[in-house]
Design goal:
The protein is mainly beta. Helices cover 6% and strands 34% of the residues. The longest helix is centred in the first third of the chain and has 9 residues, at 8-16.
């Protein structure tokens, strides 16, 4: 990846001398022909590349142990006077029934984004985007009629180079599972860093409503570059029983194993620009944002997806660094929005266009039944203050066939069940009203006149708010600039959008959210409950150049101590990482690990292998134990061994205890 712009630290040095380049407000939707340095003959042609879905990653191991332990107080912790915590003390949280164990390696990979060229990127398990992880709610045998989650343990290995090959920074990382009510030490806190040559095991409770989440890098000051390089993927928390009852299109595990077509797919939207040799070009326009001229879906430029004339469900994620999208179909057909960031809406909303800011997720149903033999495009009308190019108004194409393989899951209900708990909150129940101002001052992006550097210099003590656990509050978020918008993300919690400039929220926003699009000269009122966990959590703009330069703050729920310290409770360790094998009770033999399996063939053409800097499968091959769903056929999924009917284990080779 190359860049014609200054690094953040260089800009700060120049700013101190009084000659810094300013991030000038943009006016309207800016337009230009291209941003890439590629010759016209090398630019991808829209709707010619085949759609592909990221592989679905199977766990390396599973167990079925019930517990509520999420690690231990570090052995080197020195107890303080008046503090009851002690080394080795179990850190407890919500109860779970069983654990799925994954290993995610961050490393070099080359992918063919531009026909005939290989782009050097970074991937999770050598896949760009990374593999999708799916976890399922299950019946709780101890509580009839109730469901309980499985814990996810994700062992993340940073095998990135010691420095970025062109930008020169140290690629430290911090894994954030966006949309998860994780403990602070597993939330991807910006200062909780895993350097090259280190590893960390993250633990996720999955104790929220079923939803589309995504995992991505969150390393301080370099989130934009790391995500741009490929460190992002979807993660699905699924209530399979509910999906079957609703009759909606769904990803079917049994059909995946049998190689049958699927009718639910992730759509990860992103954009990029390229050098003349096909490498990523990074230019954030003096920290305003990176706007590419090539739109990609799941890492494929303007793909063509073959579909059947029936209903499909899409989990849409805006994974761009700075680009917002206003989506519509070329023939005016409606989207049925069934879920937002925090899960299902109570009542689905039918719209012909919707806006999606960076990091927002919407689940939509499209019905192709009346389009046999036709082609229809997903288009982008753009948002204010984005930089548009010749083909950024195009996203992807659907090529509709004439036959239907299965009508299973072919409903599109309007009523989707009980409301998410946050949607039932009343403004009158709030204990506080707070105001948050998003602005730029002294060449820095700020929240209430604070930057993340201010938080660091306070030794992480400065907070925007200190609500008690389970407190209900209203936050008024203000953007008084006409020159840019800010998608604001609040970690840990879901919120309800009450109003936008005093008016009702947009139809697609009438569900639980964790990111809100704060447009130019807008004030958005949010209602939230601070549930699940205690400790310090981040608030930031999800324009990743804004976040890196320094539009982040934090708040604290309840207490802060070693049991929930974002940095000290579970620090990264030096590689090599231990084997990720749960230890079973005495007398129980471990089951063999998941066998390595090559990616199954797809009915659509895929990229061919090319030269890489490291050994192992290419980015177009499915990582070990994965299956990649396709529009017309699904490869065989590998099953993972389970340790059934095992009593509580005491430790594991990964240093983890259920």
């Amino acid at each position: 990846m190359e860049t014609p712009s200054l690094t953040r630290r260089d800009v700060l040095k120049i700013s101190a001398a009084g000659t810094a380049a300013m991030a000038l407000p943009l006016q309207g939707v800016l337009q230009a022909a291209t941003a890439s340095q590629l010759p016209a003959s090398k630019m991808p042609v829209p709707y010619t590349a085949a759609f592909k879905a990221p592989p679905v990653l199977e766990p390396l191991h599973k167990d079925d142990v019930r517990s509520n332990i999420y690690g231990y107080v570090p052995s080197d912790y020195v107890p303080e006077a008046g503090n009851a915590h002690y080394p080795g003390e179990a850190i407890r949280g919500s109860e779970y029934l069983g654990t799925d164990y994954y290993r995610i390696t961050e490393g070099n990979v080359q992918v063919q984004l531009i026909p005939g060229m290989w782009t050097k990127m970074w991937g999770y398990n050598r896949s760009v985007p990374g593999p999708t992880i799916r976890t399922y709610l299950q019946a709780d045998p101890n509580n009839p009629g109730k469901k309980i989650s499985r814990r996810t343990v994700m062992q993340v290995l940073n095998e990135l180079p010691a420095r970025h090959p062109t930008l020169g920074y140290v690629p430290w990382t911090s894994m954030h599972l966006h949309g998860s009510p994780s403990k602070p030490q597993y939330d991807g806190y910006a200062g909780d860093l895993t350097n090259p040559g280190q590893w960390k095991a993250y633990q996720y409770p999955n104790n929220c409503t079923p939803r589309t989440l995504w995992y991505h890098d969150h390393g301080v000051h370099h989130t934009a570059e790391n995500v741009y390089m490929g460190l992002a993927a979807q993660y699905h928390l699924v209530d399979e029983e509910l999906e079957k009852a609703l009759g909606i299109p769904r990803w079917d595990r049994d059909k995946a194993a049998a190689g049958k077509p699927q009718y639910e797919f992730p759509l990860i939207l992103s954009d990029a620009m390229f050098t003349s040799t096909g490498q990523l070009l990074f230019d954030d326009s003096s920290q305003s944002g990176v706007y590419g001229d090539v739109i990609m879906v799941n890492g494929v430029p303007w793909p063509n997806m073959k579909v059947e004339p029936r209903k499909y469900r899409f989990r849409v994620l805006n994974g761009s660094l700075a680009r917002g999208y206003k989506l519509r179909m070329s023939n005016g057909m409606p989207f049925k929005v069934i879920a937002t960031d925090g899960g299902f809406m109570q009542t689905a909303q039918e719209v012909t266009t919707f806006t999606i800011g960076m990091a927002e997720r919407y689940e939509i149903i499209l019905d192709f039944k009346d389009l046999k033999g036709a082609k229809v495009q997903l288009l982008n009308d753009g948002v204010a203050n984005a930089k548009d190019f010749d083909h950024t108004g195009k996203v992807m194409q659907f090529e509709v066939g004439k036959g239907v393989t299965s009508f299973d899951g072919n409903l599109s209900p309007t009523q989707l069940g009980p409301a998410h708990p946050v949607m039932g909150l009343k403004a009158a129940d709030r204990s506080a009203i707070r105001t948050m101002k998003l602005h730029r001052s002294n060449s820095m992006w700020q929240i209430n006149d604070m930057t993340w550097d201010d938080v660091v210099e306070s030794e992480y003590e400065y907070t925007f708010a200190n609500p008690a656990k389970d407190a209900i509050e209203i936050w008024d978020v203000k953007n008084e600039s006409g020159g840019w918008f800010h998608p604001l993300h609040i970690h840990l919690i879901d919120f309800k959008v009450l109003t936008r400039n005093g008016q009702p929220p947009r139809p697609e926003e009438k569900g639980p959210k964790d990111v809100v699009y704060v447009g130019e000269n807008e004030t958005v009122r949010l209602l939230m409950r601070f549930e699940h966990e205690e400790g310090r959590y981040m608030i930031h703009c999800h324009n990743l150049s804004h976040e890196d330069h320094d539009m982040m703050f934090q708040y604290q729920v309840g207490h802060h101590d070693i049991d929930c310290d974002s940095i000290k409770a579970e620090p990264a360790k030096a590689l090599p990482a231990p084997e990720l094998t749960p230890v079973l009770p005495a007398g129980v033999s471990p089951t063999p690990p998941v066998a390595e399996a090559p990616a199954a063939p797809s009915a659509e053409p895929t990229e061919t292998a090319g030269p890489t800097e490291t050994t192992g499968p290419t980015a177009t091959s499915a990582p070990t134990g994965t299956s990649a769903p396709t529009a017309t056929s699904a490869p065989t999924a590998t099953s993972a061994p389970t340790a059934t009917s095992a009593p509580a284990a005491t430790t594991s080779a990964a240093g983890l205890t259920p």
